[in-house]
Structures are given as C-alpha cells and as structure tokens.
Amino acid sequence: MTVLFYTKQNDLAAEQLQSVIELLVLKDQLEMCRTFDSLSRTLCRPSNKLDIAVLAAANGKDLLKILSLRDLLSDIRIILILPDRKPDTISKAHSLGPRFLTYLDSNVEELQSVLSKMLDNATYP
Predict the structure, then answer these.
(1) Domain containing 47 — which CATH number?
(2) Model-level pTM?
(3) DSSP letter at 44?
(4) Does residue 32 sit in helix, strand or coil?
(5) Helix or strand holding residue 117 (H, E)
(6) Rg of the chain (C-alpha set)
(7) Is residue 124 domain-resident?
(8) Is 123 within a domain?
(9) Residue 36: which domain range?
C-alpha cells in the first residue's frame, strides 16, 4: 500500500495535511512530491504501485496541470484538495473522479477520517 502526497505549498495548511497523512501511513509507504515535475515523474515510473493519491492543488493553474495527468491517475484512488469553491474549479475537479473532494481551508479531520477508511478498506478487502 503506497500513498502519494502532492502539494506545492510550503505553509501551515500543507504541514497540517502532511502531518495527518504521516499519522496514518508508514514512512516507507509514502511518496512525497513537492513539484509538478516530481509528481509527473513518479506517476510515469514503470514500477509505480500507488494505491491512493492525496493531491492538493495550490491554485487553478496547478489543478489544470494535475488534470493533464488524468490518464496516469486512472487506476489510483484520489483524494483531491481544491484551492477554492468556484463552480468551474469543482466541475473540473470532478473529471478526475476523486473518491473525496475537499478544500485547502477545510477541516483536516475529515481528510483524516476518509483516508483512514480508504486505507482500512485496501488493507482488509
């Protein structure tokens, strides 16, 4: 079970997200990507065995870049964290088929609960 966490941000929100994920996932089962290029390279690796991706879009432009990787994300369960609540942003985000959609300014406890259930379901089918 490997979890991918992508965020370009280096702020309190990103630290909180990372802390929540690190509480649930062993260090050797976590792939961290802090740039779009590293995210792209990670998804293109032939031995890519990612099960869950937690993707935090920093802004609308970053979301569009993430959407460009749609084909590489098709077999991965996605938790998508959006930068805003604009209808256009939400509409675009749904094209990825995320299992859970939340926002950068939302309560991280919801993310923790959803990720925990996803991990439990993957570990014990």
Answers:
(1) 3.40.50.2300
(2) 0.93
(3) H
(4) strand
(5) helix 108-123
(6) 13
(7) no
(8) no
(9) 3-115
